[in-house]
Amino acid sequence: MTTTENSPEARYAGDTRTVTLRVNGQEVTREVPTRTTLADFLRDDLDLVSVHLGCEHGVCGCCTVLLDGGSVRSCLMLAVQAQGHEIETVESLSADQNNLHPIQEAFAEEQGLQCGFCTPAMVLRTKEILADGQERTDDEVRHEISGILCRCTGYQNIINAVQNAGRKLRCGGAGGCGSAHDEAKGA
Ligand code: FES
Ligand code: FES
Question: Cross-referenced SUPFAM superfamilies, in alphabetical order (predicted)?
Answer without folding.
Answer: 2Fe-2S ferredoxin-like, CO dehydrogenase ISP C-domain like
